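Changelog entry: the histidine kinase record was regenerated in this release. Current contents:
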Amino acid sequence: MEQQETEILQETAILVASIVLVLIIILLIALFAIFQKRKNSLLIQQKEAKKKFETTIIETQVEIREETLRNISWELHDNIGQLLTLAKIQVNIAQDDPSKLEEVTETITKSLTELRSLSKLINPDVIKSLNLTEAVTLEIERFNRMQFIKATIQSNEELEELDDKVEIIIFRILQEFFTNTIKHSKASNLNVDLNYQNDKLIIHAKDDGIGFNDKNSSLKKGIGLSNIQSRGKLIGADIQLDSEKGKGTEMTLVYYYKKNLSLLEDDVDYD
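Regenerated structure tokens:
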């Protein structure tokens, strides 16, 4: 009798152990399936994020090229064209008064200087060789040359070389802020400061325009802030826009060098 009870207990124990083992196996399979599903979902999200990043880079390069062509058109028409027209008038005057030839020489020399500056925008090899500070400096020089606004730039030495794709995004963000300043803010002055630190780059861009207080202001919408913010997020940059009516607008961009490196691992030729 005792032997039968012992055998029943052993069989029961084996059955319970088997059931527990089966449940553990099912649980492990379920956990593995959930893990695999999440892993696949994460991989898909990463691929989509990378695709979006690469698409944004291409779109941004197109926008920069379009902006460059507009700049070239404006300079040829409004600056160099006027200088050459002036030179033509001075040549006609100099035919009767040779002493005016010196003025002709000065005007033509100035025209050549302007053309050399413009050639930097036209030559893609020159643009590719520029770092962020140099590219922004070219923009600032153009604003002053065209007398759009009185603009200044300050920068310390670049402590860490930025990825080309990051530079493209940051440069386009600054371009959008500059465009708003010139077209909408009615500002007289624009100041840009690039501060390279050990772990991050801090950029301040400030104008002395009309500014705004209302968060839903049409002026703020005109800046394309949502577009600026979305591009900032792609590279892990924090962007803050501050403005006060009558006291101008300031944008602060902080980019940490080590953020979002996974999006930049694979080199892609966008030319």
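The chain has two domains: 58-129, 148-271.
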